[in-house]
Design goal:
The chain is mainly beta. The protein has one helix at residues 2-20; strands spanning 25-29, 32-36, 49-52, 57-60, 75-77, 89-94, 115-120, 123-136, 150-156, 163-171. It has a single domain, classed as Sortase (Sortase, Chain: A).
Length: 172
């Protein structure tokens, strides 16, 4: 009787462990791990990272044509922009809000001169925020042609759902 009860308890504990283990992903990055519970994708390794120390943000980025470069998996590098060795403009979109994919919720705390780090191809690019503003949420953004390396982060405005907030950063 005692063994049957113990056996049932162990099975339940095993099921709970199995179910909860799919909430965390481990990305290998220079021998430490970055975790997120936004989606379940196994064995994805990328050395490309977006890091914003002020808001304790660190997330993996993929090449533009990678299937995981998509908002449904986290962050998305917008087509026709690219990493600094290929383009002067890198635009990254991320969700804000209540979903578990809302990675850019804390961008609202960024201000002029705050730093954004991009690690790409084992090189660190440091950007300073030079501007931020709201635009209508149309799916389009009009930007000037930049002569130096520029990063643009874009996310939904949590107060006015018809708008998006754009953060512009320039390399130092």
């Amino acid at each position: 009787m005692y063994l049957k009860k113990l056996s049932k308890i162990l099975v339940i504990i095993g099921l709970i462990f199995l179910i909860t283990s799919f909430k965390t992903i481990y990305y290998k990055y220079n021998s430490d791990y970055v975790t997120t519970d936004t989606y379940c994708v196994k064995n994805i390794i990328s050395n490309n990272m977006l890091i914003i120390d002020k808001i304790n943000f660190k997330h993996v980025l993929y090449e533009v044509n990678n299937k995981y470069n998509n908002l449904k998996y986290g962050l998305e590098i917008i087509k026709n922009t690219d990493y600094p060795d290929k383009s002067n403009l890198l635009m990254i979109a991320g969700h804000s809000g209540n979903s578990n994919k809302a990675l850019f919720n804390d961008l609202i705390d960024l201000r002029i001169n705050d730093e954004i780090k991009l690690i790409y191809d084992n090189k660190t690019y440091i950007y300073k925020i030079t501007d931020y503003y709201k635009i209508e949420k149309t799916g389009y953004i009009k930007l000037p042609v930049y002569s130096n390396k520029t990063i643009v982060l874009i996310t939904c405005d949590q107060i006015d759902k018809s708008k998006q907030i754009v953060y512009i950063g320039k390399t130092l």
